[in-house]
Automatic annotation (TrEMBL), chains A, B:
The keyword Cell division applies. SUPFAM superfamilies: Winged helix' DNA-binding domain (SSF46785). Keywords: Cell cycle, Cell division, Chromosome partition, Cytoplasm. Pfam families: SMC_ScpB (PF04079). This is Segregation and condensation protein B.
Automatic annotation (TrEMBL), chain C:
The lineage of its organism: Bacteria, Bacillati, Actinomycetota, Actinomycetes, Micromonosporales. Keywords: Chromosome partition. This is Segregation and condensation protein A. Pfam families: SMC_ScpA (PF02616).
Amino acid sequence: MDEHRSLADELAGWAPPPGRPRPETDQVAQAQPAVEVVPAVEPESAAVAEPSAAVAEPVGPLDDAELTAALESILLVVDEPVADDKLAEVLDEPLERVVFALVELSARYTAAGSGIDLRRAAGGWRLYTRPEYADYVQRFVLDGQQSRLTQAALEALAVVAYKQPVTRSRISAIRGVNCDGVTRTLVTRGLIEECGSEPDSGAYLYRTTPLFLEKLGLDSVDQLPQLAPFLPDNVEEIADA
Amino acid sequence: MDEHRSLADELAGWAPPPGRPRPETDQVAQAQPAVEVVPAVEPESAAVAEPSAAVAEPVGPLDDAELTAALESILLVVDEPVADDKLAEVLDEPLERVVFALVELSARYTAAGSGIDLRRAAGGWRLYTRPEYADYVQRFVLDGQQSRLTQAALEALAVVAYKQPVTRSRISAIRGVNCDGVTRTLVTRGLIEECGSEPDSGAYLYRTTPLFLEKLGLDSVDQLPQLAPFLPDNVEEIADA
Amino acid sequence: MTDGATEGFTVRLTNFTGPFDLLLQLISKHKLDVTEVALSTVTDEFIAYIRAMGEGWDLDEASEFLVIAATLLDLKAARLLPAATVEDEEDLALLEARDLLFARLLQYKAFKEAAAHISGLEAAGARRWPRLVSLEPHYAAALPELVLTISPQRLAALAVKAMTPKVAPTVSVDHIHQVRVSVREHAGILRDRLRALQVATFRTLCADCQNTLEVVARFLALLELYREGLISFVQAEALGELTVRWSGGDGAVELRVDEYAGTPAETAADADGQE
């Protein structure tokens, strides 16, 4: 939420170019009709070849419009949030330029009231549907909707989010109930994962996953509100005593 | 290709409105801040609520901007081309209006030089990467691709082979970790495929493909070894061998 | 969890996720802050709710409820005495126990609020779907060819490995038909056993229980013995082993244990009247 607003701030006073002419793009399109053809005449050769060799080198640097369009194309095929530096690397463009283009693109979608929402999540960028149209989208998402988390699972998840890396027994101690079952559920749902073990006890440690951040629309756990305001200063010491 | 040209014909002489103001959309966005705002005064009630009950019915007919945005949202998540009459039915709008909105949206993407291409194919509409940017997309897709499956993917493949047809959440439950990612990899690699959905949950079911059999040198899944001879005792050694 | 009233006394249980959650819900029901007065106010209700739980306990849950119930009873008893200055070790221990309970309660409360925040984010996220479609065929065709050299035997072994449960399966007790048990009877068993052993863990004391209901009965019986001042509890860490110590001396002890609702004996009728 916050980063969304700050995104807008960043872009305040920045005028998107909605209808500027782009003759270059059209020329490129006409010059490369072969790309449109679905290949598969000799798929083996393409598959066996070195990845880099199969890819034609791009023709010179990208202008702003091309960069944005290339990002849109790539974002259309990603299946998890993609880091801006990976995009910069693939496009062979400076990171700042790519980040600026992404921020601008996201703001442009929002300003235009597009049903597509470009968001930063879990340290990367990905296209999402805009929540306003969830009712319609829902009818097309055939894959079984995951049931919402129970209160117990949410509490355990909160402890992991704020205390990570953390053992199951610590989660249990904070909640006052055994948490083995809900911990297992959270691992199966991909929201938390094991990350080594505590040196002394050998007990598994758990942390939240990128999927957790993505499902919650967070870029990092730092965006969660501070726990401290809820807590008197000395609670931790007393509780750990 | 053909329908692409016919689309272009259809659109000949049609002027896309690249930068027209859309106050309605902004109003809608402002009228629904609740979706973005973190509520959670009574988390229990929210968590317990039926998914369908949580969905507010759309408020009256859609204006042009909303209709277009709703279409964008839907098209973002559909994998197979979706027929215009199905879109019209779900949106509860006249077919002509929906078709017009789709054609207009496609033209707008093209006119704006967007990296997103809305095309009619196989009797329906789907978002594709724009061919001009195929080189970049391909570079991105090939970046870091492995020719071997990870241990996790192999294990998920084994579960599908013996439990098919099986849902992703079942694979995750069996393996005790989230398997959405590896399942996608196996689908992309053509080793497993969707085969309908579970009646109750609507979750996709997966089964192995002929390519899987071919790679293993089998004629049918019936030729897979029986699981009975393996005792739990030595499972670890054999599997890790 | 449990809902509604069981015969004997009327309590309306909302879903609670543990002893701290139950305490907080009770305190907020009385519109109180988390104070000593609040704890004292809800002590009886807390114990009443524990009684009403009946089925659905497991040993791990029970011990934590028991420790908290014991602390609450201690605090309540202390409040009934004329306010005295802290002079002996027992008072000091009580103050420590109280502070620890407050600290853990407030800590839990903070995480519960954090969980509410996360729930809100989850709800908002559930109205947003990511782009997740299969690769356009010409890109998929360009992927490096897959090397898959696994043998069918190894695949079978992997399947078995994946399907072998990673954790000890828990035995469900849901199917066990309900047996009526007597708290008074179990209090007697525990009294005899503890007088002989002097010290025993809760787990040991319940080792011969045939079903959950018997564990609950032992649990309630321990509370009764505690209330009578015959035993004390020691627990090194939260959810750790709960140790019970006999402090009733060597002489014969008459138990004044009221029966609870659902007891087979005819004494069940007056169970709700007890305090």
